[in-house]
Amino acid sequence: MLAGGLLLAVTACGGGSDSGSGDGKGKGGDSGTAQSGPSQAVVSIAPKDGAESVDTSGALKVSASKGKLSEVVVKDGKGEKIPGKITDGGASWTPSTHLAASTEYTVHAVAKDSEGREAAEESSFTTLTPEHTFLGTFTPEDGSKVGVGMSFSLRFDRGITNPDDVEKAVRIKTEPAVDVQGHWFGNDRLDFRPEKYWKEGTKVTVELELDGVEGRDGVYGKQDKTLSFTIGRDQVSVVDVKTKKMKVMQDGKVVKTLPVTTGKPGYDTWNGQMVITEKFVETRMNGDTVGYDGEYDIDDVPHAMRLSQSGTFIHGNYWGGDAFGNYNASHGCVGLRDVKGAWDKKTPAAWFFDHSMIGDVVVVKNSDDATIAPDNGLNGWNMSWEEWTK
To answer: Looking at residue 124, what DSSP letter applies?
Structure first.
């Protein structure tokens, strides 16, 4: 009886404290009574607690009925939070990104009813372990310094049929900030670039959050990596096929003019903007590998730099005689005077090689050939920004 009497006394005091109207129905009295009861809000979490082999996309959902969500925290096994948004006026929460594969997640969700009373739920689950995975090989290398024409390029070892999901998982940040957009070449290559050449000194950070992304049915990404590269000095060189000269420009100013030889009639050099992607002090060039069977096989081509995947190089030439600056004699490459063995640092080819870096741009104009295809090498600059982003 004593306990009951105390309970009645407490209840009476709570009601009497705001009964100024004399009817015992003041708002203060109702609120105090309501808050002492359980919340009417109901929190639901999918997948259910303890679930295994959960899909990495679309399976995680949190909802509230008879109330509104006020807090949702989802963490992986490392304690890192998964971003998401409360939507539908507080009725639901969904992650703003996919989940990683083979990972345990914990969920803590809180909702409030109309009286401000809280209801909370906890859950944990584990995502699937994929049987089949895909991998993206990227360029440029992490930590490298590259020229203003360098695109960030990913080549996948499996054809991608969910390109939007894959592209969203590649996040690129720049300092200073610049708009960078991706473009797909077929279903296995994704390149990123800004509208115009990079500015000197720009730092580019790439977050590859492909782990758990379903690139095609039943095939998931496995990369979770952050890498960066820096844009070096601004160098763009312009080869004029008619004058047979190349102007090397830094920051828009000509620093060197070099005599060249380009593709002879029938073997014309591509027009267009081409990016240096590889450098070799010496390399072998065999016409059989580019469709010119038996026409040449030179095992020590000096100071060679690749401009296209199909075999266009700008390189040293020790067999060209007086062609440089006088006539075009190559099978489509741009040639600069050089010596056998690449030992003479004073030759035009050696100078250009030593003053060039991966990512520099070489522009060819006034050739009788067409413009190089944008996917032939890292030559997406030959597409307009409208074409690139559509």
So the answer is: E
In this structure, what token pair is assigned to residue 354?
A: 């030593």
Phi/psi at 74 (5° precision): -120, 130
Q: How does pLDDT run across 202-242, given as a tens digit for each residue? A: 999 999 999 999 999 999 999 999 999 999 999 999 999 99
Quickly list DSSP for 296-362. -EEEEEEEEEE--TTS-EEEEESS-TT-TTT---BSSSEEEE--TTS--TTSHHHHHHHT--TT-EE
Residue 334 and residue 288 in contact, taking contact as beta carbons nearer than 8 Å: no
Distance between CA 256 and CA 254 in Å, rounded? Answer: 6
- Whole-model pTM: value is 0.86
Residue 103, both tokens: 């990972």
Percent above pLDDT 70 for the chain: 91
Q: What is the pLDDT of residues 107-137, one digit of tens each?
A: 999 999 999 999 999 999 999 999 999 999 9
The single-letter code of the amino acid at 228 is S
